[in-house]
Amino acid sequence: MPVYKEVSELPHCGSCGKLVSVGGIRVERLGHTLVFCTERCIQVFDTYKVPKYGEAALWQESIVR
Amino acid sequence: MAVAATSPEIRTDPFLLEIIRNFLITTCKEMGIAMMRTSYSPMFNEALDFSCVVFDGKEEMVAQAPYVPAQIGSTVHVVPTAIAEVGVDNLEPGDVIFTNDPYRSNCHLPEFVVVKPYFRDGKILAYTANIAHMTDVGGMVPAAFGDHQNIFQEGIRFPPVKIYERDKEIESIFKILISNVRTPKHSYGDMKAMIGSLYLAERRIDELVTRYGVETFEQCCEDVKLVSERLMRAEIAAWPDGEYEAEGLLEDDGVVPDRPWKIKGTLVIRGDELIVDFTGSDPQCFGPANQTFGTTASAAYNAVLHMVSSDIPYNHGCYRPISVIAPPGSFVNVSYPGACVGGNSDTHPTTVDVLLEAFSQFSGRSSAADGGTCGCIGFGGQDPETGEPYAHLHLEGVGWGGRADADGNDVQFVKNGNCANTPVEVAETRYPFLNMEYQLEPGQVGHGKHRGGFGSRRVFRFLADGVHISSHTNRHRVKAWGLFGGGEGTNTILAFRRAGETEWVRAREAFGSASYGKFSNIVMNAGDEMLFVTPSGGGYGDALERDPELVLVDWLDELLGAEDAREHYGVVIDTASRAVDAAATEALRAERRGGAGL
What we know:
With 65 residues, chain A is of the alpha+beta class. Chain A is built from one helix and two strands, in the order ββα. Chain A has one domain (9-62). The longest helix of chain A has 15 residues, at 39-53. The longest helix of chain B is centred in the first third of the chain and has 29 residues, at 184-212. Chain B is globular. The A-B interface holds A 4, 6-8, 12, 15-19, 21-23, 40-41, 44, 48-49, 53, 59, 61-62 and B 77, 81, 84-85, 101, 103-105, 159, 268, 270, 275, 277, 279, 293, 297, 323-329, 333, 335-337.
């Protein structure tokens, strides 16, 4: 639908979980292209979430499809 | 506060910085006053359920007025999201953006957000914005709060759209909005009050920029954020590095009976930065108790702000050292189409209390849990005099938790809610009910060295048939917890009796609802009554350490019985002389302490 994308079609930041409806930063992590809302969120993902949770740090909602 | 500009990176003269910072804060306050004076509904002009902010051209908050902290925290995210979705390049002078979409970092559907760019010489220098609680947003119940199971039942949702273009209303948006709510005149008037305050703020900022120049204004915006960021980082750096966990329960979601929902919060302190991690919280619930990302982020920010000096200027700089982790599809970050209207009213304060419990593991500034509900009860129906639909949202204060240096506040709106009490006279003039009783609820509170605050007791009598009552209230089963040996608070009571009956019956027994506190469209008729007792707060510290004179004051105020004073505090009151029996108290407390050690 060109006029509107429902929020369920949009990704969430891989670190904080916020909906990223426009823009975002795409990076490769854990074998997937993930979206993040800021550089700070990427840093939290790399230095806190992945060391603490391992594979469970990955949210399906953050994978760019 | 006086902000010292000693760092080479802070370039603005410190006196000028204070002048401009306070000018912007005053502008936000003036926005609120304008909304209060020009709005139609009691939610605006009595409860003051709105917040006003100024963002700079980088879409970062530089000033706010102290209205509703729960809303303000979400603006950090929803305002930039709304701007991004409409597109900066699509904005022109005189445009206003509007959204109420909870999935886009707003708090819930009733919070309407409007944003206006301020242009100077063709460039956006700032944004004026406010967020305000609309009484009715359509949906299945008047005034929005009930036991909804999805967003469609909650009401009408607007993604970010322009509602003004070049100073002219976009009629189609207004038509869609007011044709979908029960109170079109109020909603239209309140929207115009919101937008009018944006224009007022824009004029003030224009005066400021005209006086000091664009460059100075922009530098000041940078510097006020930097000052706040540094002060916040200094506070965090003083805390011990480590991870501090706590959990709390929201008693039910209004859909699944007796199934509590867990909020888990972990504070991760690393130098001068803080991560607030909600991993481990329950999946999103089936009812409307879910929090949005914006609500959860706001709860995290506000919990931290409770723990630091109140001298720190509140702006984007405060939030920079704080990162939030809220898993999508969880109780703290609802996914479409999950319901979420109550997440902002009842889950938010519980989330703050969970984080305060985590803070209590290393800080003496924390507090026991509070009553944990905004007491949201919606009234609606056909006005017996005019025949027009009406909707009213009742809010109620609760007892707050005791803290290190004081008792909990009595009957005050929950932490970060900060709404005012709508006067009985105003409500009774506008809506078909009377307040037969309204008082502090004496008796049990969370006992402690600093006791929890008292809740209230109110009895409504309805004057018309067909009054629809819906509710999203909390603490009917799970009480406010104490800290450091303090006792639990008390439960909420919400009960009904038909005209002529004497027994109070709760909603679950009377109407078959899944929950005592979350239900939709119970119908009351003339002469029927409703009892609403709000919960007290948890206690802080050992009750045997409470100053006996404070126990006496509660007894003199008829809030505590002499037997309760003896049982809970080990204080013996000589009721004849209306004084503490010091010797008997000392002996009783020594016996209790000795007994406890055996």
